[in-house]
Specification:
It is built from five helices and 17 strands. It is mainly beta. It has a single domain, classed as Beta-galactosidase, Chain A, domain 5 (Distorted Sandwich), CATH 2.70.98. Strand 13 and strand 14 form a beta hairpin. It starts with a helix and ends in a 6-residue tail after the last helix.
Amino acid sequence: MKSLLPVLTIACAVALGQAAEPAKLTLNWAKNYLTIRGDHLPGQEMKIHYLEAYCRDNSQTTNWGQHTVVGHKTRLVSRSGDGSQIRLHCDVNDGVTVEHVITATHDEVDFLLTAHNPTAKRSEAHWAQPCIRVGKFTGTGADATADKYAYIKKSFVYLDGQRTMMPTQGWATEARYIPGQVWAGPGVPRADVNPRPLHPDVPSNGLIGCFSGDGSMIFATAFEPYQELFQGVIRCLHSDFRLGGLEPGKTLKIRGKIYLVKNDEAALLKRYHNDFPEHKALHRPTKK
């Protein structure tokens, strides 16, 4: 009788490989909310107002509803059977269309957007807001605390080349609408960002993020091109992508990432720089 050892060895190796394969995140979209779910995700799910708004320029001191917001409608085009990919279509009221391909793995969500202006006039939309709710992830959701801003102390941006926990030095407190904190992206006119308190510094990379409640994971997000980083008022963090007012007939490709990774900052930064190599030139060292 032939030995069964080689067969058993292969079977065990396959079983171990399958067991070691990390569970994928899944995606769902309904009523303008994108939901990321995963058993390994602190809080089990993360909701994103996707998209909250397309926005005009000259927005830092003007009325949000009367001036800034360009209306839009989003519809679901398709969802893969395993929930790993969603396709959306946005019609912006000024005629611009935006196609979204959103794909999840076990530790990230990838965004590939194509914005196109088929009209004969320049688009009014200069930037747009995915509003990412991080309360559950940070252990500071409404079911855990009545303090809507408890998550801030677990949140960070990068200033002067270093991760800086919020609230940072130079924290702004005055604006048309308060509270909150805005960091204008490099080269973005400071008049063309969210009408919340505007931080005096420009971020030294494009990441904004937070630590999970148990400290085991990091959430971070980045887009290219981006308009601003934003700490909002609904237990949310934003990397708001830039459209720039598309000229007639023009098309713009936009990329984004949500990272949901183990608490290893060096690995996160390496991955971010690989995913967004153009940010190295965009973010020049800040002069003291």
